[in-house]
Design a protein that fits this description.
Elements lengths: L1 E2 L16 H8 L7 H12 L13 H10 L6 E7 L5 E6 L5 E8 L4 E4 L3 E2 L17 E2 L2 H14 L14 E4 L9 H11 L12 E5 L3 H10 L3 E5 L5 H7 L8 H9 L10 E7 L7 H10 L5 E7 L13 H13 L30 H10 L1
Parallel strand pairs: 5-8, 8-9, 9-10, 10-11, 11-12
Antiparallel strand pairs: 1-2, 2-3, 3-4, 4-5, 6-7
Helix pairs in contact: 4-5, 6-8, 9-10
């Protein structure tokens, strides 16, 4: 484990995460449009430069203006941890010193970056460590894209490689509910998938939601990324307990939205995430009801052995019980991989992320702003 305690300097506003059309509107008066704007975009997102002075083919007046008024900074890494299985977790902080966590999971043919969309969470799912931390605030597009760029910096993946990458897949499965921060998440995904920059395929991006039903169709139509549903129960009374959002959008309503997901097909299936909780949701009857519920939806079921965290009231189902559960699903014709726990020893596994950030009261924030 390594820790860094670098001071956070007073930073100029970052251009990272700003949509291309907004950049053009803001900088037309200094000639930053069309061809010149594409050059800036290329330097930022294809080459990943950290300073405007590195943009050698931009006119001097543009470079000087940008250098004096803006930055290209990424989040500050406060703590870096490496699991015995190679998983890495970074505790990062932003300009207001609020913190989030980012995880990188290395595999043989890919590397998956698990990023956060909020600091804390508003959903209070009972089995999730993040759910014990109240929502502090949404992350901006700049702060979301910055997580990916930070990882690319660490792995020295600039310019954007066309072959195998350390950061080949991105999953919105970190802290927060992405569909409750839709505008900023959408803006970030558009930048991440731009072919002239970071160049991630939409097929390599998965957005996980606990079931914000009204936003699911919009997500499919506008973003076209893979969808993962945090299901975790097959009966409303139990899901009300495990995933309190179910009280607002019950299982039948959620699954109907899944059936109508705009890009749904056999090649673009919905992933149903199901955490295995001993004696809670892991019976043969639960497995059979799960198969019945998702009938007709092109999907796979991701079985997640529960990852313990301090203070949790749940235990993980036994390997034998998980195997039997998976067999029932597999025999019904569904892919049902059991997710191998990664990064448990550094609390980097699914459902274990949490920071110490707390919401600041409006009065305290007003005082801090006046002092700044």
């Amino acid at each position: 484990m390594t820790s860094t305690s670098l001071p956070t300097p007073a930073l100029l506003p970052s251009l990272i995460g700003m949509p291309k059309d907004s950049l053009e509107t803001q900088f037309t008066d200094i000639g930053l449009k069309g061809f010149r704007l594409n050059q800036l975009w290329h330097w930022m997102y294809h080459r990943g430069v950290r300073e405007f002075s590195e943009m050698k083919n931009l006119p001097k007046n543009i470079v000087e203006h940008l250098s004096q008024n803006y930055s290209l900074h990424r989040p500050n890494i406060k703590l870096s941890q490496v699991s015995k299985d190679g998983t890495q977790k970074w505790l990062i902080s932003y300009d207001d010193n609020q913190e989030a966590e980012v995880v990188h999971i290395p595999e043989v043919n890919r590397g998956t970056l698990c990023i956060s969309s909020q600091i804390g969470c508003t959903l209070t799912c009972k089995f999730c460590h993040t759910g014990t931390q109240k929502l502090v605030r949404n992350l901006t597009s700049s702060e979301i894209v910055g997580q990916v760029m930070m990882a690319r910096d660490i792995f020295n993946e600039w310019p954007t490689p066309m072959g195998q990458r350390h950061v080949s897949n991105v999953v919105f499965m970190g802290m927060g509910e992405p569909l409750y921060n839709y505008d900023q998440v959408s803006q970030a995904i558009q930048i991440l998938t731009d072919q002239n920059g970071i160049c991630l395929s939409k097929r390599k991006i998965t957005l996980s939601t606990s079931g914000v039903v009204p936003m699911i169709e919009r997500c499919g139509k506008e973003l076209g990324v893979h969808l993962a549903i945090s299901l975790h129960a097959v009966r409303d009374n139990l899901r009300d307990e495990l995933v309190p959002l179910n009280k607002k959008y019950p299982i039948a309503e959620l699954l109907n939205a899944c059936r109508n997901y705009p890009i749904l097909s056999n090649s673009k299936r919905i992933t149903f995430e199901y955490v295995m909780l001993k004696g809670v949701n892991d019976s043969d009857a639960d497995a059979k009801e799960l198969v019945r519920l998702i009938k007709g939806i092109p999907s796979k079921i991701n079985l997640i052995p529960f990852n313990p965290w301090p203070g949790s009231i749940y235990e993980c189902s036994s390997p034998e019980r998980i195997h039997q559960f998976a067999e029932i699903i597999y025999k019904a014709g569904y892919v049902s991989p059991v997710r191998a726990p990664r990064g448990r020893d550094i609390l980097a596994a699914c459902g274990q992320l949490k920071s110490e950030s707390q919401r600041i009261s409006k009065l305290k924030q007003k005082t801090l702003d006046s002092q700044g």
